[in-house]
Amino acid sequence: MRKHGVAVALLLVASACSSNAETTAPAPTTTTAAPTTTSTPTTLAPITTTTPPTTTSPPTTTTPPTTTVAAVTGDWIADLLASLQVSDTTPQADYDRADWGSGWSDDDSDCINTRHEVLVLESLLEAEMDSSECKVIGGQWFAAFTGTYVNEPGSLDIDHFVPLANAHASGGWAWSSVDKRDYYNDLTDSQHLIAVTASANRSKGSKGPDEWKPPDSSYWCQYAYSWVDIKARWGLTVTNSEMNALQAMLEGCDGTLSAAMATTTATTEATDPTTTAPQIAASPTTTGGNGGHSSGGNAGRVRPADRYACNIDSLGYCIFTGTPHQTGLDPGTEDIVDRDGSFLFPVDEAVAVNAQGEALPARGTPAFDGDDLQRYSQDGLSEDEKAFQRVMAIMFPVRNALMYDIATVTQTEWDLLVGELEQREIKETTFTSGPTPKDNYYGRQGIFDLAKIPGGRDIHHDVMKFLEEAGLYLLCHVTTNDFGEMLKETHPEGHDPCRDAGISTKIPFSYQVSTTTTAAITTATESATPENPGDTKNCGDFENYNQAKAWFDTYFPSYGDVAGLDGDNDGEPCESLPGGP
């Protein structure tokens, strides 16, 4: 199967057109700036916008009579909305979706149509293609409308950000059939088509922001900006009701966005994580957005480089592209250290930040390139948020070991790095007999052995799957049930990561004394031995073999096959379930 590159960004940003776009798109009447969506709705950074190619031309037909918004003023919201024209005029032709094309096209003749091009471009992990190399069958996506992560492409719709029927009513009724078809399949603007959950897309329908807003309110600033930008770019009008709704949404955004309108050539500068205090999300249950990672990788729909591929070096190791985390928790201590092992600060003063110095929200979001730990007070953070910071501090060195340092990491060092996982029996087993690679998984020792001897193949899918699940299951152990419910809500429907982990008795962190400070933080921990569940489960209670195995492995060491799941006593429960050996 062919693999495709990983999307650098999670959310969409202001439009930038591809220099080699072959389709004709209307030229904008003005260029508007959009904010980079961050993990904290009150902290939005300006971004660069670019003007679409001068070779494109607007629709040649006339548009309905319009009324121009008041002249640009010092008010940044008014300046932004000045790019729009207001009209409540009824379109002079009925809407017929067939006029906008017969469906997704394949303009570059690579057998991958527009839907699958978007899925490839927006996948956070390397998109997996079917045997024909034309359709996406695997990956991971951030569905911005709902603030959720989706692993099954079939659960996603590709949304026209400004719906076709809305574009028709806003002046598109007067366009030529060529312009309408170009609008339908426009890949030159990364905002124009985005992957969203099917339920959110169908709830939105053809409604404007005056009738529908994304369920995740932290996305409203980005939503309003993108809506304005697309409408201005295509010369589409807004109704008075629509304009009022956009203004209300923008009034909830950070006023520093006005800086983004000052120029269209300035480049966003990353915040120095060693000098600037990040903004901390108030609550893990209300934090939305893209996991704190900067937007912008898809501008112009140019395929991004694969940041999570690995290269086989001269010694045969699979070394990942990208850069290692520069900080992490020294195993068995309370010390955050650098790559050389030098002490930086205590872990109870560590906050995980992205490359822009923005605090990562306390969620089950996988770590990314550029994430690191910054010294900052944890005062005001909930216990769940503090536990999240420690999980990130633990997982950064584990990621480095598997992705970048595997050639020099010894078995003893690896055992220390995964000590917190071992204590909670996280990722105990390895299974490699599945019908497809997607059905396989590696335990703590299995993934280390694979990384040590990859057999000359790209193993980054296996490594990334281990890292994501290990970090997620550790979070489930050390946080409250409310946090676990939040994790469930931000993962695909029907997927409950804490239930999948088979955890019945949580084992929270046991804090030690820092080797460089005299402060001691102690927390009582529950016994590592889980309570006997009794004969409370049968194979029908699990959706797949992985769930059954996780539950079985939790209780077998203490109580044996207490629920009678292993009928042939071979150590493998519920073997007939999907994914079973």
Annotate the secondary structure layout:
Blueprint: E1 3-4, E2 67-68, H1 76-81, E3 85-86, H2 114-122, E4 127-129, E5 136-138, E6 141-143, E7 148-150, E8 156-160, H3 164-169, H4 177-184, E9 193-197, H5 198-204, H6 220-233, H7 240-250, E10 310-312, E11 318-320, E12 327-329, E13 335-338, E14 343-346, E15 350-353, E16 372-375, H8 383-403, H9 411-417, H10 419-423, H11 444-452, H12 460-478, H13 481-489, H14 497-500, H15 545-559
Antiparallel strand pairs: 1-4, 2-3, 4-5, 6-7, 8-9, 10-11, 12-13, 13-14, 15-16
Helix pairs in contact: 6-7, 8-12
Overall description:
The protein is an alpha+beta fold and 581 residues long. It has helices at 76-81, 114-122, 164-169, 177-184, 198-204, 220-233, 240-250, 383-403, 411-417, 419-423, 444-452, 460-478, 481-489, 497-500, 545-559; strands at residues 3-4, 67-68, 85-86, 127-129, 136-138, 141-143, 148-150, 156-160, 193-197, 310-312, 318-320, 327-329, 335-338, 343-346, 350-353, 372-375. The strands form seven sheets. The protein has a three-stranded antiparallel beta sheet with strand order 1-4-5, covered by helices on one side. The protein has a three-stranded antiparallel beta sheet with strand order 12-13-14. Helix 6 (220-233) packs across helix 7 (240-250) and helix 8 packs antiparallel against helix 12. The two termini are 23 Å apart. Mean pLDDT is 75; it is low at 1-74, 255-307 and 513-528.
